[in-house]
Amino acid sequence: MYDDSDVDRLQQLQDSAERLAYSADWHPTECGDSLMRISSDGRWWHQGTLINKAALVLLFSRLLRREGQQYFLITPVEKLAIVVDDAPFVSIVTQVRGEGEQQCVYVTTNLGDSVLIGPEYPLTLALNPQAQQMLPYVSIGAGLAVRLQRSDFYHLVEHSEERVLDGRSVMAVRSQGHWYSLGVLD
């Protein structure tokens, strides 16, 4: 049975999916440098000055795309390079709902988008070159990712269990019936 919080969560997920959807039909001819940077804590900067207007950051985030290792802000007429220190988005909260096969893990980003970890938005571990360690990321499509903050990672560890995935003993968390590694145990 659904309650009002489930309906609100479904609407938030739908809104986020629509915002994260992108049309790759834009092929601008004007290219350059945006003089912008997204720091590893998810804050956006322009020429060394923090962008404090949340609506402006949200607008820019809708234009963000990744091609290979480079990030760009792409509009119908311009393609501007932007420096991203780690992942362009960071988690601000994770929620684990349900148990067993029904367990679902939701991640909310610093821009208020929510995604449900699963086949469409998988959780992976990747080497962070700055930290020189494996860190958890959730893919949100178009080469973009959300890095889970330490507190959110530990929250998932509380809901994990020891599993064997790809022949290795790992701690893993389940979401939408799929298992996602949080780290190798051996």
Brief descriptors of the model:
duf1285 protein fold, six-stranded mixed sheet, 15 strands, 3 helices, 2 domains, duf1285 like fold, alpha+beta, 186 residues, single chain
Report on the structure:
This protein is of the alpha+beta class and 186 residues long. It folds into two domains: 81 residues, duf1285 like fold (Roll), CATH 3.10.540; 96 residues, duf1285 protein fold (Roll). It is 18% helix and 47% strand. The strands form three sheets. The protein has a six-stranded mixed β-sheet with strand order 3-2-1-6-5-4. A six-stranded mixed β-sheet has the order 9-8-7-12-11-10. Strand 7 and strand 8 form a beta hairpin. The chain is globular. The relative contact order is 0.14. The mean pLDDT is 88.
Structural class: alpha+beta
Main β-sheet description: 6 strands, mixed
User: How many discrete domains?
Assistant: 2
Sequence stretches where pLDDT stays below 50 over 5 or more residues? none
Percentage of β-strand residues: over 45%
Listing every helix as H and every strand as E from the N terminus to the C terminus, the arrangement reads HEEEHEEEEEEEEEHEEE
Principal-axes geometry comes out as globular
- The CATH class name of the largest domain reads Mainly Beta
Average pLDDT reading: 88
Number of helices: 3
Kindly report the name of the CATH homologous superfamily of the largest domain: duf1285 protein
Strand tally is 15
Distance between the termini: 41 Å
CATH architecture of the largest domain: Roll
Helix percent band? 10-25%
Placed side by side, the strands forming the largest sheet appear as 3-2-1-6-5-4
Radius of gyration: 18 Å
CATH topology of the largest domain: duf1285 protein fold
